[in-house]
């Protein structure tokens, strides 16, 4: 058997959520172009690059959206790697893209929004959870193959990361968005033995830089918890 495909190979795939985005108007930016990291977001990206600098990273890939590309760039640079792009890592599609939609803004009371909220199990307001699983698992497997026996870093967005983790950990896909464990600049780490995921881990290397109300599990704060996109 080729040692490069041995069932004993250990490959580590880190899936990172991008850093904070400059978004003063509180727009749910979704897949819209033109949303870049804030100064704080760039500091988060640098922090994670430092955190991973000593790791055996041989492949770095990001969603095509600017905030993901900018987050991944210092990580790739630290390892002397070209940054790859995988469209499968993109943010989930959402019909509320371009609008404000969050805690305390009255969005749930607007009749024009009700038709999009009828089925939280799918969900009816955006890309089906199952479709997110399929594309994210494809991106993870491709990264595992590209970095086999080493480590890869993928930069993506909160919802797709949480959904693929939920799938791997055999949880239901529909969930309370406030309870996602996927803070800005966090790492959700999948360890493969051969082609099988054998463990999932979670770390927050830039936790001290994340505003308290945006930490995983934080209680929503009216006026500070709009669904800006992730």
TrEMBL record:
<dbReference type="GO" id="GO:0005737">
    <property type="term" value="C:cytoplasm"/>
</dbReference>
<protein>
    <submittedName>
        <fullName>Histidine phosphatase family protein</fullName>
    </submittedName>
</protein>
<dbReference type="InterPro" id="IPR050275">
    <property type="entry name" value="PGM_Phosphatase"/>
</dbReference>
<dbReference type="InterPro" id="IPR029033">
    <property type="entry name" value="His_PPase_superfam"/>
</dbReference>
<dbReference type="GO" id="GO:0016791">
    <property type="term" value="F:phosphatase activity"/>
</dbReference>
<dbReference type="Pfam" id="PF00300">
    <property type="entry name" value="His_Phos_1"/>
</dbReference>
<dbReference type="InterPro" id="IPR013078">
    <property type="entry name" value="His_Pase_superF_clade-1"/>
</dbReference>
